[in-house]
Fold this sequence. Notes:
Elements: H1 2-14, E1 27-33, E2 38-41, E3 47-50, E4 56-59, E5 65-69, E6 80-85, E7 88-93, E8 98-103, E9 108-113, E10 122-127, E11 133-137, E12 142-146, E13 152-155, H2 159-163, E14 171-175, E15 178-182, E16 188-191, E17 197-201, E18 207-212, E19 215-220, E20 223-228, E21 234-238, H3 241-244, E22 248-251, E23 255-259, E24 263-268
Antiparallel strand pairs: 1-24, 2-3, 3-4, 4-5, 6-7, 7-8, 8-9, 10-11, 11-12, 12-13, 14-15, 15-16, 16-17, 18-19, 19-20, 20-21, 22-23, 23-24
Amino acid sequence: xxxxxxxxxxxxxxxxxxxxxxxxxxxxxxxxxxxxxxxxxxxxxxxxxxxxxxxxxxxxxxxxxxxxxxxxxxxxxxxxxxxxxxxxxxxxxxxxxxxxxxxxxxxxxxxxxxxxxxxxxxxxxxxxxxxxxxxxxxxxxxxxxxxxxxxxxxxxxxxxxxxxxxxxxxxxxxxxxxxxxxxxxxxxxxxxxxxxxxxxxxxxxxxxxxxxxxxxxxxxxxxxxxxxxxxxxxxxxxxxxxxxxxxxxxxxxxxxxxxxxxxxxxxxxx
Length: 270
């Protein structure tokens, strides 16, 4: 299966993405304006905005404000927001090696200081299917799983012994019984829930990487990509210039969210 997956994707790449859809239109839905430094979207189309003052605001699918997190004095600017479980939000502060766990209303449930667990250098974290937390320890080159108290539940062997050159994942997604680690300079590493490598997907250089349902989304230059995990099909859209200029993108299975200078534009695409 691993060989089949790698060969199938490689052939698609060599053919210049035969399924490219050059003229597909992006149907504008709405814009959300405000002081927005970064944002993310959950699978219910709730939008989480991070402002220049480190405030986190949650909007529902209609764009109405439903919650605000203002307790930002301790940790400064969050470097990652994980909302893969809409009932539980993770804020990660890389400079302090600290994870703040929020409930659906953005109230603090818990704070995890990774330094107390002797985990000192982490770039990527992600929620697990069982409400635990995955992270990649860059100093030990290990994938680890912890609970909300920071207790270590699982760890892999040193990846340098497994791969020769250890990955440096920027993203971790737990989706449909598999764990996806994305290193944009290498590829996508796919693990089972015990930390065993299942296969690799030859995707590299994609920005705005996200695993959502059966798809992997990403962008590169003026192109938007969607990779079907089950069929290995890669679709490509040439984005209109105004959309391609956006600072960042996020995705759900049917929507594209584009961060402009002071707004988020939402589009339906297919």
